[in-house]
Amino acid sequence: MSKSKNTYTRLLIVSYRLPFSIQPTDDGPALRQNSGGLVSAVLSMAERMGQQPGNTSTKIHWVGHADASLRAVEPALLENESFVAHPVFMEEAVHKGFYEGFSNDLLWPLFHYFTSYASFNERDFSHYQQANTRFLEELNALIEPGDLVWIHDFQLMLLPDMVRKAIPSATIGYFFHIPFPTYEIIKLLPRTWRQVLIEGVLGADVIGFHTADYVQHFMHSVSEVLALPIIGHRIVLADRSVSVRHFPISVDFTKFNVSGQETDVVSTRLRYQRLLRHNKLIFSVDRLDYTKGIRYRLQGYERFLLQQPDWHGRVALVMTVVPSRDKIGQYQELKREIEETVGRINGLFGSIGWRPIVYSYASLTFTELMALYTACDVALITPIRDGMNLVAKEFVASRSDQAGVLILSELAGAAQELQEALIINPTDTQEVADAIEQALIMPKQEQSARMEQMRCHIQNHNVFRWSHDFLNAFDNVPGAEPDLETNLPVGSFMTAFAEARQRLLLVDFDGTLAPLVDNPADARPTDDLRQALASLAERADLVIISGRNRTFLEQAMAGIPVCLVAEHGAFLKKPDQPWERLDLSADNWLAPVRSVIDPFVTRFSGSFAEEKETAIAWHYRMAHADDVESQAVELANILRGITSAVPLTVIQGNKVVEVKPAQHSKGTVALSIVEQNAYDFIVSIGDDATDEDMFSQLPNWAYTLKVGPGTSFARYRLARQRDVDTLLQQMSEVLTNM
Ligand code: GDG
């Protein structure tokens, strides 16, 4: 059934951690939500859903892990005016293996490209599965028809598929907050793990990542690990498709923009400025983590101090490291190293009255954080990998004075949007040192020009837009397509077929009569299907209508008295007759198009160009480069821009980009065939975009059948290619038994 945002009644959020605590109030203890961006985004999303007529409940249900302290809490306390909290409890050992083990010791380092920190432990994997199952149990007790379930992050990669299997009609979104790495990294995971993890997230209808790169990496892994067809941004499964897109997370711009003027922020800022006197301030804040590039940041700053003695006594790096995972050896080691380096730099360069680094290992209150965002001259953000990095966006949003300079690592997702920052590579300590100097001497006018651009971007792409864009993406999931009657009324269909005097069958080849395969030359119908086709061809006009060339079709259908249509309607061959050429356009467009395609063939090994008589196709099913899908889109765009004496059509098919003259199509040829006889039964079956021309040209009483998901002009749908085999075999039996 179709679903759109208008019909969702409730929002169910699932994340590893519940963003709530029980706080004392005048009326006794009450549930309080954290003030994070995700909580605000979700609130605004629910508000939007709640505005829809007929929607009675706007309370958001949030499922997440909670420590044992919530066990003793009265159920009534787990609810406030906006949220209902559903704590997930699990055995200590399971939690440890799931969270500390598989999530933080394997997925986190691996997906941030710290392969040597990754620990592969079978017991942890089993705990990860058990923990995801615990989340499923909690959800299962809660979920109702009409709910939208939104699952978050790498701790819950198995959950979307678990929910899909338990409740096949559920509407599920999944958002990945950390980088999705290249397939070379995914390949390090044992085969079964990588398969289960990718199948796990594919349980969702919409999958979101922060950047287009992560989307491409994911798509590449899907095609390597599961060999599933990908069409544009969709992964095609047997009975549905999954939409995969990038939705860059952001911040509540207004909140950060105005908070700098709040009284306590102003007074805290003044206090910091007094304490740090006339120094220029460089600020950084991050959780203690090896991905954040704190070591490189210190090396870059040290190099700056070495090379720029003029700045001694006039600048301070205020570096706050927020405690995190510090019971783990690796993190303790990192902390020790950071503190040693800070001590060494302060000892080497400092003097009485001047500390080059003001370091603290502590959490900041929101007021302190705002005071530092607005007091500093430079924000120095140097992760070695970061899914997005919200600190960068918060700093920019806080600077309503349009002053301050952002130095940002190119390895943070945020760098793809904040191009007016000073973009650096953190491992290049000279580049960091130079950027610090450039930032400190940058004229006010330039600071303001850069800030204005970045602020404008964040204002327009705030966290509310992020969640709304994600919500809107569900409007395009298969379930939300204009309703196609998915079930062919087989009984009346077979009766009409049996009773007809003149029968016409128009059937596509690839993905319809034969499954899609790696090497196009290998595609063939099964022997059973060939037999059925041969018997059908005796009492019906059977037309195979394809984009393939003449030779291939003749070979593939040899021995069956069918009519063949090759190259999308350019050629037609009736049984026992020679080929006729229907396309009469000149072919002087071929050479220039070939010269555009050739560099793509060279660049993507495994891909090849097929030059037909009236068309050229670039096939890339066997090319495995990360960016091949996006480059296929790029090629199609370039080809569409080519001007030629002959009007051309560019077709983006399944792992193929094809160019042909616009004058003929499967539709034009289907129509001319239909007009040659007084047919009283017509069925047309096809799976891809070129078959739509055929569906749209046929009389409206014809049976038009779309194979697989996707919007279509067809009246009916067959879920998968093998259903075509079944249907045609049944039709042949009907004729045989008459
Ligand atoms: C993951 C991904 C992605 C930090 N210290 C204090 C404090 N914070 C707040 C910041 C910011 C948030 O925590 C940190 O967000 P990040 O995006 O930088 O990083 P992760 O926590 O690693 O988050 C990341 C994010 O998910 C969202 O998808 O961007 O790439 O790793 O909001 O302000 N807040 C306060 N005191 C602190 O000391 N009050």
UniProtKB/TrEMBL annotation:
InterPro entries: Glyco_trans_20 (IPR001830), HAD-like_sf (IPR036412), HAD-SF_hydro_IIB (IPR006379), HAD_sf (IPR023214), Trehalose_PPase (IPR003337). It holds the Pfam family Trehalose_PPase. Belongs to the glycosyltransferase 20 family. In the C-terminal section; belongs to the trehalose phosphatase family. This is Bifunctional alpha,alpha-trehalose-phosphate synthase (UDP-forming)/trehalose-phosphatase. It comes from Fibrella forsythiae.
